[in-house]
Automatic annotation (TrEMBL):
It holds the Pfam family DIOX_N. It comes from the Eukaryota. InterPro entries: DIOX_N, IPNS-like_FE2OG_OXY, IPNS-like_sf, Iron_ascorbate_oxido_reductase. Residues 26-122 form the Non-haem dioxygenase N-terminal domain. This is Clavaminate synthase-like protein. Residues 203-291 form the Isopenicillin N synthase-like Fe(2+) 2OG dioxygenase domain. It comes from Neolentinus lepideus HHB14362 ss-1. Gene3D superfamilies: B-lactam Antibiotic, Isopenicillin N Synthase, Chain.
């Protein structure tokens, strides 16, 4: 039997009065009736069209189960570095399941300061992704699998049904291309941002630059260290995302943008330096990344709503370039993201062509005299 996990203590929320984003909360206790689904579908499409981020509550996963996953992440990052390094995949070729060590990117050229972001990705438990894990993880794989599968059945499947309703598609349209048993690059992630000194924070300004995630929806569990910011779709202003008790924070991503011809917007976000009363602690994240099946071609779907609104082509279709499969898109963007020893001040990198027909964009400008990087999904 595995030794008991230690408890995980969340840090105290910031006392600073930050410019918080005004985000919609979807109450999934209303899900399951025609009236409730219609109300939630209207809320969802408004949220991902206007803001990109939204909260979900009453998703039928206990806080105790969530806390155990945070405890799991905490204990993983306390393992010796030499143990964690046994589980590094071929990052240079876009692989991402396993451990990504800190320090692959230069975030301040003047001092040579490197990032302090560590990632541990655990893929789906559906037979396609045999992985070795440290004993700490291996002894709890059953619990981790139950948690990951619950995120599909209790959160993602309802969201995909609601999205289909909003686009006047068959209700199972998106669930049919996001089945847990099919091969896709979904993964659960424990992510650690180790703290910087006050002097270092003054130089780097942000811990992760503005970016979009590459999949369908990203699920982010409540993390009291305020650092997540989103770029408002309408105004272009950066707003802080407030940690809300008992909720998941969810954002729409690139694949949904491609599948809807840009009607669903992929949310621009970043991890910035926390407020001063939280800069003395590390930031531990628990996330889940949802992606369509690997063999799905990212064509714009034939939706009555999209056709009425004029969203009938994505970037690949409009440029006449081949439309990639989700697998092709995933590994092309991951390979770009994981480029080692690259300074984020390099605009050639920041605007690179990921695949023919799609160039990455600069989502926020670098403050004068600094260079920072983004690590994203």
């Amino acid at each position: 039997m595995a030794p008991e996990l230690g408890s995980y203590q969340f840090v105290t929320e910031t006392k600073e009065n930050l410019d918080w984003a005004d985000l919609i909360t979807l109450d999934l206790s209303k899900y399951g009736t025609p009236e409730g689904n219609k109300e939630l579908a209207d809320f969802l499409i408004r949220a991902i069209r206007e803001k990109g981020f939204f909260y979900v509550k009453n998703f039928n996963i206990s806080q105790e189960r969530v806390n155990r996953q945070f405890a799991m992440g905490k204990e993983f990052y306390e393992l010796p570095l030499e143990e964690k390094l046994k589980y590094v995949p071929d990052l240079d070729n876009g692989q991402f399941n396993g451990y990504t060590p800190a320090g692959r990117r230069i975030i301040d050229e003047a001092t040579g300061l490197r990032d302090r972001i560590e990632i541990y990705n655990i893929p789906k438990f559906n037979g396609y992704f045999p992985r070795d894990h440290p004993v700490l993880v291996k002894e709890r794989l059953t619990e981790i699998e139950e948690f990951a599968r619950s995120l599909h059945s209790e959160v993602l499947d309802p969201l995909f049904v609601l999205l289909a309703i909003a686009l006047e598609l068959p209700q199972d349209y998106f669930t049919n291309i996001h089945k847990y048993e099919e091969k896709s690059e979904d993964h659960l992630r424990y992510m650690k941002y180790s703290k910087y000194s006050a002097e270092e924070n003054a130089r780097i300004h942000h811990w992760g630059r503005g970016h979009t995630d590459l999949g369908s929806f990203t699920l982010l569990f409540r993390q009291p260290v305020a650092a997540l910011q989103i770029k408002d779709h309408a105004t272009g202003e950066w707003k802080w995302v407030k940690p809300q008790d008992g909720t998941l924070t969810v954002n729409a991503c690139d694949a949904l943008s491609f599948l809807t011809g840009g009607y669903v917007k992929s949310t621009i976000h970043r991890v910035t330096v926390p407020p001063k009363d939280q800069q003395h602690v590390d930031r531990l994240g628990l996330l889940y990344f949802s992606r369509p099946h690997n063999d799905i071609k990212l064509h714009t779907v034939k939706s009555p709503v999209l056709e009425r609104e004029g969203y009938t082509q994505n970037e690949f279709e409009a440029s006449g370039n081949p439309v990639p499969t989700m697998e092709e898109w995933t590994f092309a963007k991951q390979k770009w993201q994981r480029t080692p020893n690259r300074s984020y001040a390099d605009n050639t990198y920041r605007t690179a062509t990921i695949l023919p027909g799609f160039k990455e964009k600069i989502y926020d400008e670098l403050p004068t005299g600094s260079a920072t990087v983004s690590v994203s999904a």
